[in-house]
Design a protein that fits this description.
- This is Methyltransferase.
- This protein has 415 residues and is an alpha/beta fold.
- It has 2 domains: 211 residues, 3-Layer(aba) Sandwich (Rossmann fold), CATH 3.40.50.150; 124 residues, 3-Layer(aba) Sandwich (Rossmann fold).
Length: 415
């Protein structure tokens, strides 16, 4: 494994302010998608994982930045391995085609297309589909027949996209925007690529839900920003964009999410009541108040203590415990808990890029879903807890008699 490089910034990545306060420290951790071969453990690196609040614009963010080029060079996350996420994105695509009456042949983009999960949801042959993907996952989308530009998106790339493909009628970036350090360049690039009546749909884990429901595991080095409408409205105004509609969804790539509809400042899309309503709600909630986040930190510590007590109780009763699914956020949780293979004997996963490796930091073996079934381990910590209902209803593990420990927002055993 190649070494990761890291740098520290001391200004807000949206407004440039230095009025920043640390609100949560999840300890030093490895990058959460850096699944590691057993022979490479000695060279593993850890970096600070601390969330800071900008008291001027309200953006929550990481200031220790692991190089995106290093993270995405050998990337182990493939979106399409999640059946629930495929279903979720199918709903997004179907609704967007209907709402915005996309004409046949329209240019449609997906920034951060990964293995083509979103592009594959569109009717075959109807639109001119373009994926942008800097990571190694883009090879899977190209193999599936999609046009993929292998580059990081920003204001420098946008003119080349306009020249090559034309302006985009609809562009999506789901579970991507929070990964970006130069977030202003990204937004300016979208503004430059959009058609006059084009729409940008962003979906991201919602900061307020993360804090209120204690979903702290969505904090990891890839996620540089923890987003809400208030700071984004500030950003959009800087680059001649505006949000005109917002929806909440309970099922996103990393948990409950906001789906934000954005257009050029001069576009014909009318702003509906959801935008001012959410801005008021965030102000009333205290989006810029450090006390909100310090309370969050206390609740995070309480969840840690409760989960460790649950695991210790099962171990004392002679039960083995595994973990089910190996998402990046699961590694934030495992490392913050401080557990290892003596506590969690294995993590099951259906992504071949992870199977046979160890989880970063905690060094728990990653095995196949079938291997977990064969081992007949009675309890499994459900690291993809945001799909708990789906897995309880559909997984062979539960049908075989296994029980999930759902860790968040507070530990509970299901079924």
């Amino acid at each position: 494994m190649a070494a990761f490089s890291v740098r520290h910034r001391d200004t807000c990545r949206i407004c440039g302010s230095r009025n920043l306060v640390e609100v949560l420290d999840l300890t030093d951790q490895p990058p959460s998608n850096s699944f590691i071969a057993p022979e490479a453990v000695a060279a593993e690196q850890r970096f600070p994982l601390k969330m800071h609040l900008c008291r001027d614009c309200g953006l929550s963010q990481l200031l220790d930045i692991v190089s995106a080029e290093d993270i995405f060079d050998d990337y182990a996350y493939l979106s399409s391995t999640s059946r629930a996420l495929c279903t979720h994105y199918q709903g997004l695509v179907d609704a967007a085609i209907e709402r915005f009456k996309l004409p046949d042949g329209a240019v449609v983009g997906d920034i951060g297309c990964n293995d083509g999960i979103m592009l594959a949801r569109y009717p075959a042959g109807r639109f001119s589909l373009v994926g942008i993907e800097p990571s190694s996952a883009g090879a899977y989308a190209r193999k599936a027949g999609f046009t993929v530009v292998e580059d990081f998106f920003g204001r420098d790339l946008a003119p080349r996209l306009v020249e090559r493909f034309g302006r985009v009628k609809l562009v999506t970036s789901t579970n991507v925007f929070a990964h970006v350090d130069d977030i202003e360049s990204f937004a300016a690039g979208v503004q430059a690529w959009l058609a006059e009546d084009g729409v940008w749909i962003i979906e991201f884990p919602y900061l307020v839900d993360m804090v209120e429901r204690c979903y702290f595991d969505t904090i990891y080095h890839e996620h540089l920003c923890y987003l809400a409408l208030t700071p984004l409205a500030h950003l959009f105004a800087k680059v001649s964009l505006r949000a005109f509609r917002v929806e909440k969804t309970e099922v996103g790539a990393s948990g409950p999410a906001l789906r934000l509809f954005v257009c050029r400042a001069d576009a014909p899309h009318a702003e509906d009541s959801s935008i001012p309503a959410l801005l008021r709600a965030e102000a009333d909630w205290g989006i810029k108040d450090p006390a909100r986040y310090h309370d969050f930190a206390k609740r995070v510590e309480a969840v840690k203590e409760s989960l460790l007590a649950t695991l210790a109780d099962l171990k004392a009763k002679g039960h083995q415990v595994a973990a089910f699914c190996a998402p990046a956020k699961g590694n934030t949780l495992l490392n913050y808990l401080g557990v290892g293979p003596d506590d969690i004997v294995a993590v099951s996963e259906n992504n071949d890029l992870k199977i046979g490796k160890l989880t970063p930091g905690s060094h728990i073996p990653v095995i196949s879903d079938q291997a977990l079934l064969d081992a007949k381990i009675p309890y499994a910590l459900l690291l993809a807890w945001n799909y708990a209902d789906f897995f309880v209803a559909n997984s062979d593990y539960v049908k075989q008699g296994g029980r999930f420990i759902v860790p968040l927002p507070e530990p509970v055993v299901r079924p």
